[in-house]
Amino acid sequence: MQIYLPIAEMPVSVLLILGMGAAVGFVSGMFGIGGGFLMTPLLIFLGIPPAIAVATQSAQIAASSTTGALAALRRDALDLKLAAVLTAGGFVGTVMGVWAFAAMRRAGQLDLVIVLSYVTLFTAIGMLMVGESARDFWSRWKGTAKPRRRAGGHAAMFGLPLRMKFPRSKLYVSVLPVAGISFLVGFAGTILGIGGGFIMVPVLLYLFRVPTGVVIGTSQVQVLFTALLAVILQATLNGAVDIVLAIMLIVGGVFGAQFGARAGRALRADLFRFLLGLLVLAVGIRFAVEIALTPAEPFSIYLPEGRR
Amino acid sequence: MTFRILSALLLAAMGLLPALPAKAERLMVSLSAHQIAIGSNYTGAQMALFGVVEDDGRDLLNLESYDVVVTVRGPREGMTVRQKERVGFVWINRSQQKFVAVPTVLAVASNRPTGEIATDAARRQMRLGLRAIVDAPEMSFESHDPDEPFRQALIRLKTKEGHWSEDPRGVVFVGPGFFRAPISVPGTAPTGNYEVEVVLLSGDRLAARRIASFEVVKTGFEERITALSQERSLPYGLGIGAMSLLFGWMASVIFRRD
């Protein structure tokens, strides 16, 4: 069954979009990430104009992270104070990102910046996570227990002024690195057309050593507000949000996210980190391969004006 | 009638009629529809073009030798074709060629291959066929030396996308001087005004040319949504934001297990 998208100006298969929404929703619910880094390339592959793909899938991210955040709230599995600081930093980063996006676009080579950022960011974070998990597995197999939390790590970062207590996250840290990281995530996320949850989760896990049980809920609150801001900005400034596409993605996504969240709770924490690391690494490698291999079609058409 | 033609031929053969008066073919064309309305189940549309060739009777014997080329041009847009080149380990977009006012949809139909109908020069001059249209000087600002691959790439990519096509058997002569050509508009084609150019050729000579047009417009829900997103973009954005929250909340109520 086909339905016409009024803003993207093209017909798409309803079942295909619902299925894609469900699949990405599953991953998103499982790992507490927005899933934009998976959905955007899929939609573009279907022929939906990139600007509309990026803008519209943030509506789905907002919906699925609402569900996730509410579930985490009921289970008391989030740190609202930390989420508030992250959201504030993320907002500033998002607005700056929108500005930088336009500037780079004017200068040309935005595509290259995006792909290279994907490769560096994803490969680095993915390798960090997979490596850490592999060491965990190895030490458990050898029978030598590793201390779970290293007290007083990152001394320089923790010694900055404006320290703040985040009791839920067992964190007593300066606000500056937290806000700084969330600013960077908002900034990079906007330029890459993603929510940034997949950067935020590893940062909270590894850099700030927030307990795994709190990370997902907290990240989802931050993703929710960032995505909501993105939807409203995109619709108002660019007119690039397609409501028909958004509804289909949301309906598919909320169902997928439910099952994903259940699967995520059933996972062991170390396996969870390993799988998330693998996923991030896989996306990084995919982009690395894309720019390293000889393309089958070296030419591409670019439409300077308009959204298409 | 036959007598008149015969006598004309005879006179011509005898050199008694040194200059035949300029032939006056008349070409009449009609589209089966002038508007394509986009609704929620729109997946593209088909229509037909009908045409009748009339001349003033002197050339009836010659009716078989007419050729017809139908060119459909969608709304125009500027396009840049970029070529990836290897720099170190990565392939990046290096050289590019800008094309101005490229028809987003371009369909050429003829009763036989355009290569057989007219010479290269004539085709280029009359813009007959994808190749001739892309080679036309108005397609690009500046002509680089190696711009040939870019023109080929433009044709290749647009054809692969399904927006450009060339059908050497698309125009069918149903009877003497009466032809028909199907026109199909792909579902992904943009809205706007489409121009249909019908060229009648007799040998290499342009005998007649007619332009018809149709428009592709959104109707009903699709039209209202587009208008809303453009004219009241803030309420539209806030509405979608609120809708996302509502759906997310509903899901958490439906799937609540505790």
Number of helices of chain A: 11
CATH architecture of the largest domain in chain B: Sandwich
Number of domains of chain A: 1
For the biggest sheet of chain B, the summary is: 6 strands, mixed
Query: How are strands sequenced across the largest beta sheet of chain A?
Result: 1-2
State the share of residues found in helices of chain A, binned by percent: over 70%
- Which structural class do you get from the secondary structure elements of chain A? mainly alpha
Task: Give the ordered list of helices and strands of chain B.
Answer: HEEEEEEEHHHHEEEEEHH
Record field, number of beta strands of chain B: 12
Largest sheet of chain A: 2 strands, antiparallel
Shape of chain A: globular
Structural class based on helices, strands and sheet pairing of chain B: alpha+beta
Side by side, the strands of the main sheet of chain B go 2-12-11-4-7-8
End-to-end C-alpha gap of chain A? 24 Å
| Overall average pLDDT of chain A | 80
The domain count of chain B comes to: 2
Mean residue pLDDT of chain B? 84
Total DSSP E strands of chain A: 5
CATH topology of the largest domain in chain B: Immunoglobulin-like
Pfam families (chain A): TauE (PF01925)
InterPro entries (chain A): TM_pro_TauE-like, TSUP/Inactive_protease-like
Membrane topology (chain A): Multi-pass membrane protein
Transmembrane segments (chain A): 12-35, 42-62, 82-103, 110-131, 174-207, 214-233, 239-259, 271-289
Gist of the model:
The complex is a heterodimer of chains A (308) and B (258). Chain A is mainly alpha-helical and 308 residues long.
What does this structure look like?
Chain A: It is found in: Cell membrane; Membrane. Chain A: Keywords: Cell membrane, Membrane, Transmembrane, Transmembrane helix. Chain A: Belongs to the 4-toluene sulfonate uptake permease (TSUP) (TC 2.A.102) family. The complex is a heterodimer of chains A (308) and B (258). Chain A is mainly alpha-helical. Chain A has helices at residues 14-31, 36-45, 50-74, 80-107, 110-142, 155-158, 175-192, 197-207, 212-238, 243-266, 269-292, and strands at 2-5, 10-13, 163-166, 171-174, 299-302. In chain A, the strands form two sheets. Chain A has a two-stranded antiparallel sheet with strand order 1-2. A two-stranded antiparallel sheet of chain A has the order 3-4. The longest helix of chain A is centred in the middle third of the chain and has 33 residues, at 110-142. Chain A is globular and about 55 Å long. The relative contact order of chain A is 0.22. Chain B starts with a helix and ends with a helix. With 258 residues, chain B is α+β, with helices and mostly antiparallel strands. Chain B has helices at 2-13, 114-117, 120-126, 130-135, 148-161, 220-231, 233-254, and strands at residues 26-31, 35-38, 44-54, 66-73, 76-87, 90-103, 106-110, 164-167, 172-175, 178-186, 192-202, 205-218. Chain B is built from seven helices and twelve strands. Classes of the chains: A mainly alpha (308), B alpha+beta (258). Chains A and B meet through strand 1, helix 3, helix 5, helix 9 and helix 10 of A and strand 5, strand 6, helix 5, helix 6 and helix 7 of B. Strand 5 (299-302) of chain A pairs antiparallel with strand 5 of chain B, so a sheet runs across the interface.
